[in-house]
Amino acid sequence: MKREALVVTCVGLNHRTAPVEEREKVAFSAEDLPDALNRLHAELGNAVVISTCNRTELYATTAGGAHEADRLLDALAACKGAQLHPRLTYFLSHDEAVRHMFRVACGIDSMVLGESQILGQVRDAMSAATQAGSLNGVLSRLLHSALRVGKRARSQTNIGRYAVSVSSAAVALARQTVGTLDGKTVLVISAGSTGELAANSLAESGAERILVTNRTPQRAAALARKIGGETVPFSRLPRALAVSDIVISGTGAGEFVLRPETVASAAADRNGNDLLLLDVAVPRDIDPAVRELSGVRLFDIDDIEAVSRANLRGRRREVLRVEAHVEDEVEEFMNWWRSLDVVPVIAALRERAEEIRDRELERTLRRLPGLDDEQRDRIEAMTRAIVKKMLDRPIARLKDGADTGLYMEALEDLFEVRSTPSRKRR
Fold first, then answer.
1. In what order do the strands lie in the sheet with 90-93?
2. Residue 299 β-bridge partners
3. What are phi and psi of 286, to 5 degrees?
4. CA 267, CA 213: separation in Å to the nearest integer?
5. Which terminus in the chain has less CB density within 10 A, N or C?
6. Is residue 160 predicted with pLDDT exceeding 50?
7. In this structure, what are the phi and psi dihedrals at residue 186, rounded to the nearest 5 degrees?
8. Reported confidence tier of residue 259, pLDDT bands at 50, 70, 90
9. Cis omega (within 30 of 0) on the bond before 421?
């Protein structure tokens, strides 16, 4: 009889499978995530969502068949009222899903190979799922293992040495487009981690003046102080555009921050000087229609991928070392996963053996009323030792055998024990 088992399952789309206009359909901000997880928890019984500028992925434990792909994809899209093209998505289950999660956490499945932000994003995804109550034991173990292998990759290989962030890649694209940043005025529309990374890269690249704006003035002021920049009220954004040479926007606002009419007005006040716009947000901050304006150049997150190929040879060499750590963790996780069936069977087997031992011991001792306490204790110890020796090999086979399922079914039948595998519980 085939044993039903719930396995780790993943559906998603990323920078390799889908363009930014498709990825942004299911991009979840930190504010969106709790409601989405509550909905997914109610529908699937468990869920974890990782949503970054490069990817959106849903992890759950399911029966693992290919038919689950549509169910999970529909559940994910429904959280945003979106429709996704299946050909732009992927479906992974069992060890493939586990391996993928670990590669993501190590930064070797990112647009910018080896980037470090993803580890914090995995941690945030785990925290959000924990707060929503959508984690089960298997997903919790998966995420903790992912964080561990991500840390190992960065401490035991040089993958981080070659890593750059999306924001620093954007700054490299700016240098490639306009040349030196000396004497340039740069506007950063963001005050989160993306904005901070961009601002730091700009400061290191020699930008003469860095303006920072955000809908929350306190956050913009804090970042400006940190990098020696200037705060611009968000209400004065059009004027800031007119005096800037380069704009990097990464707010994750969920709607366009810059529209053609705003940019056109600013471009008209620039006396013919081109304006470079870099949109590192998903969903995008800058309306792509801006590309049609004269004197304006717009690059979005997908355009940055080419820049991230710098130092690719060194990073690829380190990927082989990271992959070895990933395979170690995959093997350890899968061994643990397989043990979830074994533990209750072992417990049931021991309980059954103990019932038989107790019954036969009691019957024997009734027939030997002349025994003193020491003699009775010795007989009991002997029966315990016999039972232990009889069970040692079957239990070892359950734990280490090549076909654990076959051994479990045989033992359940021979000893008339039944158990409910832990991984069947959502």
1. 48-51, 55-62, 7-14, 90-93
2. 278
3. -115, 125
4. 19
5. N
6. yes
7. -120, 135
8. very high
9. no
CA dihedral of residues 132, 128, 287, 210 (deg, nearest 10): 150
Q: Are strands 7-14 and 55-62 parallel, antiparallel or unpaired?
A: antiparallel
Q: Give yes or no for a contact between 171 and 201, defined as CB atoms under 8 angstroms apart.
A: yes
**Mean pLDDT (whole number) for 17-38:** 93
pLDDT at site 101: 98
Q: What is the pLDDT confidence band of residue 423, given thresholds at 50, 70 and 90?
A: very low
What's the rounded Cα separation, in Å, for the pair 370 and 301?
A: 87
CB count within 10 Å of CB 72 equals 23
- Looking up tokens 């003046």 gives 209
Distance CA 284, CA 20 (A): 8
Six token digits for residue 43: 């529908």
Instruction: For domain 166-309, give the CATH superfamily.
Output: NAD(P)-binding Rossmann-like Domain (3.40.50.720)
pLDDT at residue 2, rounded to an integer:
38
Give the relative orientation of helices 193-204 and 217-227 as an angle to the nearest 10 degrees. Answer: 30
Is there a catalytic annotation at residue 53? Answer: yes
In this predicted model, what pLDDT tens digit does every residue of 189-205 receive, in sequence order?
A: 986 777 777 777 777 77
DSSP β-bridge partners for residue 339: none
185 phi/psi in degrees, rounded to 5 = -105, 125
Q: Looking at residue 233, what is its pLDDT?
A: 93
Q: Judge residue 180's burial from the number of C-beta atoms within 10 Å of its C-beta, 0-12 exposed, 13-18 middle, 19 or more buried.
A: exposed
> Which member of 10, 53, 79, 106 is catalytic?
53
CATH 3.40.50.720 maps onto the chain at 166-309
pLDDT over threshold 60, residue 4: no
Choice among 98-107, 151-160, 218-227, 306-315 with the minimum mean pLDDT: 306-315
Query: Class for domain 7-163+317-335, per CATH?
Result: alpha beta
The whole model's pTM is what?
0.70
* pLDDT at site 57: 98
